[in-house]
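Input sequence (188 aa), recorded before submission:
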Amino acid sequence: MNPTVSPEIQAIVTKLYQTAHTELQKEVITLLHITEEYTILASGKSPIKPDDFWVLPLGSKKTSEEFFKHIPPTPSEIEYAINFVEDNIIPIKKLLPANSELCSVSPVIQEIALQSGKEMFSQQIILSIKEMEDIFSRLAIIISGRPYSTDTLPESTSFAASLLILREIMHHFGFQDITIMKSLQTSE
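Predicted structure, token format:
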């Protein structure tokens, strides 16, 4: 399933892709952009326009509203959400260019990075898969019964959904890290 987004959102994501390509100076990038309603991946070699553009029905708000009926989500709610995310991302895996660098300017990804103890003092930071997994493990402990008050994680199912989407993309696509850049002033 590849829902469509407005030409305005496509233009915003293309601009984010161009900026990321210029700033990272990598041969091939994959831009991950999570909005409330969609997850968008733009990938390619060209600094002008992505070679591939995927819009997935996975958004921070949409996924949390569809799967998470409790705060924190229950283990079974997390499992159903993981299955749904995997079903949507696995077909893309073989289409991604080899040696692509994962990057994002999404505020929700920045919020995840802040939970690793990193600050957005510089224009970009790198979050490793291990650091992301450490954050997910903290969420898993809360899901298992520890109160949110024992951690700094946001008590938000949207945060949990964004973290889950990021985790599944990094794992299934084999990304060892993600470069997170300060957001441009754009609207979604």
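Checked by second reader. The domain at 7-181 is CATH 3.30.420.150 (Nucleotidyltransferase; domain 5).
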